[in-house]
């Protein structure tokens, strides 16, 4: 015990020194504005491009609020191409920054590399290989550049499926595993990062390692939720289960927030209850838009609108129970029993029965609809938060019924749903609140190119409200403009985050767009 105490003291001192160095020393390693000069002298010509169309598209992302230009884009065709590029930067006197870009669905330049090289991971996708399902092992080995929709299509061919999802499936495996990957299944199965068995990672030194919780475990946990800071993930082994066939998909409207959250919390405490649980908020902002989805029958639009008008803010609980031939005869009864136990406003329950694929891929319809109207490639000043359960009622009063209602600008879905902390893993890099239950809140806004700053102001107002109230709120898909913000973001985990950075990417080459170490 004494030697343990001594070791942890030494450990603490080392971490403290590293933090002080990090805070005080301006990083000087990745300052070369012209990696192209180094690269063009090497074997990369042909794989690298400086064509303005490639550089321009690597400069923007789904958020459309930043434009950060790299010097060049690498279109790798093999793992070696990436390893060679990282080694070249690492071995060079004036290292250059580089970032893996999955599908570029970040909202704040997180996959950018200013004056460096963006690695376009999607160029690695080879339809003939890169995804291998093990029926006996119940896992899939997938190249990190694949989209989750592609993974699902492949595994369903064998009647199998990953269990933890994001709401939207056109995101890469590497991109969501760098963040967390959350949705209505998280309360039950944990985020996507807790459903990974093994990974291949190229570190910031250009070394390639296979890691799992038993092999190179520190690297494994560092990379999961690690915001691209410790290595480029090239392969992940994801757990699978037998896929259900269909989904009973129910929505219930509430006017009372405490009834709504009480029902949500009760449902996520059960191990054999629903398979998916989310929730959303509808705010009275003139003409209703959020709820006017194809979900609600047109005949009900008017009465839902008048309910929103009357109460100003209402809530929608969304649950799903999967079923197949064997459970077909009991699922209706089960859902009826569940409905009776809930405290929603009677008469405001909506039901759909869809295939498993239709349910998981539900956001695609909305995407295609928005694309057809030219409303997809617009600014998305999103704010995603984890709010501890003890603070969610205060958050409702201050943010949903306060800031959002008052400012009257938020459009797009506003999500609010709880998850169980014990389904996460503290050894991973992802930062989460301390309480056993915490809520994911997502303000998924679409804005105009001329007015997105107003939404950004609203985001700052919300963050200030949380900070002033010491609410222990943590950003998901985080953006912090200063290192002080990151230190607060990671809290007690900051020391280990810095220590791992020095260990796996000592020249601070990787994912500079996260703005953590620059
Ligand atoms: P990118 O934006 O390309 O990259 C994100 C970060 O990961 C960058 O720092 C990048 O450098 C790094 N990175 C990318 N690939 C690798 C790799 N192979 N190795 C190491 N680092 C890498 N998230 C949820 O959790 N749940 C949701 O329901 C959800 N819904 C969404 C819906 C939409 C419409 C959008 C646009 C986003 C949604 N997200 C959701 C957020 C999404 O998970 C993240 O933005 C994710 O990072 C996007 O994946 P990407 O492949 O586009 O990654």
Structural class category: alpha+beta
| Beta-strand proportion | 15-25%
Global shape: globular
How far apart are the termini?
39 Å
Strand order of the largest sheet: 5-6-10-8-9
Small molecules bound in the structure, each named once: flavin-adenine dinucleotide
Total number of strands: 19
Helical content class? 25-40%
Count of individual helical segments: 17
Main beta sheet: 5 strands, antiparallel
- Average of per-residue pLDDT values: 91
Low-confidence segments, ≥5 residues, pLDDT <50?
A: 1-7, 22-33
Task: Provide the gyration radius in Å.
Answer: 23 Å
How would you describe this structure to a colleague?
This protein is α+β, with helices and mostly antiparallel strands. The protein is 35% helix and 20% strand. The protein contains 17 helices and 19 strands. It has helices spanning 2-24, 35-40, 52-59, 79-91, 148-156, 173-177, 186-189, 217-223, 257-268, 301-311, 328-341, 356-360, 362-372, 392-407, 452-468, 483-490, 494-504; strands at 48-49, 72-74, 98-101, 117-120, 131-134, 139-143, 160-161, 196-203, 208-212, 231-239, 241-242, 246-254, 276-283, 313-323, 349-355, 383-388, 414-420, 437-443, 474-476. α1 (2-24) packs across α17 (494-504) and α14 runs antiparallel to α15 (452-468). The protein starts with a helix and ends in a 14-residue tail after the last helix. It binds flavin-adenine dinucleotide. Flavin-adenine dinucleotide (FAD) binds at residues 61-62, 99-106, 110-111, 121, 144, 166-168, 171-172, 174-176, 178-183, 227-228, 232-233, 477, 511, 513-514. Flavin-adenine dinucleotide binds next to β3, α6 and β10.
């Amino acid at each position: 015990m004494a030697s343990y105490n001594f070791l942890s003291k030494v450990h603490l001192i080392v971490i403290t020194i590293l933090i002080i160095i990090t805070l005080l020393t301006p990083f000087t390693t990745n300052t070369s504005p012209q990696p192209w000069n180094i690269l063009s002298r090497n074997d990369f010509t042909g794989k690298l491009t400086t064509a303005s169309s490639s550089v321009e598209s690597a400069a923007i992302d789904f958020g459309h609020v930043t434009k950060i230009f790299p010097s060049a884009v690498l279109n790798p065709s093999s793992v070696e191409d990436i390893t060679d590029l990282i080694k070249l930067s690492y071995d060079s006197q004036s290292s250059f920054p580089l970032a893996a870009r999955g599908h570029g669905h970040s909202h704040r330049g997180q996959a950018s590399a200013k004056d460096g090289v963006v690695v376009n991971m999607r160029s690695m996708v080879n339809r003939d290989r890169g995804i291998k399902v093990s029926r006996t092992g119940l896992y899939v080995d997938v190249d990190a550049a694949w989209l989750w929709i592609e993974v699902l299509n492949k595994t369903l061919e064998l009647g199998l499926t990953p269990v933890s999802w994001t709401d939207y499936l056109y995101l890469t495996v590497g991109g969501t595993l760098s963040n967390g990957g959350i949705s209505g299944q998280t309360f039950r199965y944990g985020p996507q990062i807790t459903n990974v068995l093994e990974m291949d990672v190229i570190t910031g030194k250009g070394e390639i390692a296979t890691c799992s919780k038993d092999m190179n475990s520190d690297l494994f946990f560092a990379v999961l939720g690690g915001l691209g800071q410790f290595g480029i993930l090239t392969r992940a082994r994801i757990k699978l289960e037998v896929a259900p066939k269909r989904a009973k998909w129910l929505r219930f409207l509430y006017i009372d927030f405490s009834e709504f959250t009480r029902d949500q919390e009760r449902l996520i405490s059960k191990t054999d209850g629903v398979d998916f649980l989310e929730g959303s908020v509808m705010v009275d902002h003139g003409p209703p838009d959020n709820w006017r989805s194809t979900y609600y029958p047109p005949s009900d639009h008017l009465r839902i609108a008048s309910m929103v008008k009357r109460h100003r803010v209402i809530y929608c609980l969304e649950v799903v129970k999967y079923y197949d031939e064997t459970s077909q005869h009991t699922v209706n009864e089960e859902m009826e029993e569940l409905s009776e136990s809930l405290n929603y406003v009677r008469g405001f329950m909506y039901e759909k029965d869809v295939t498993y694929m239709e349910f998981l891929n539900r956001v695609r319809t909305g995407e295609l609809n928005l694309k057809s109207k030219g409303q997809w490639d617009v600014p998305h000043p999103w704010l995603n938060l984890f709010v501890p359960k003890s603070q969610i009622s205060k958050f409702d009063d201050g943010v949903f019924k306060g800031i959002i209602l008052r400012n009257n600008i938020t459009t797009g879905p506003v999500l609010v749903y709880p998850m169980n902390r014990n389904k996460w893993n503290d050894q991973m890099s992802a930062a989460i609140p301390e309480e056993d239950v915490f809520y994911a809140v997502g303000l998924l806004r679409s804005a105009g190119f001329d007015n997105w700053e107003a939404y950004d102001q609203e985001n700052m107002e919300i963050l200030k409200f949380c900070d002033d109230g010491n609410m222990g709120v943590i950003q998901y898909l985080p953006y912090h403009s200063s290192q002080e913000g990151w230190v607060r973001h990671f809290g007690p985990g900051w020391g280990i985050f810095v220590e791992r950075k020095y260990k796996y990417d000592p020249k601070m080459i990787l994912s500079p767009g996260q703005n953590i170490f620059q």
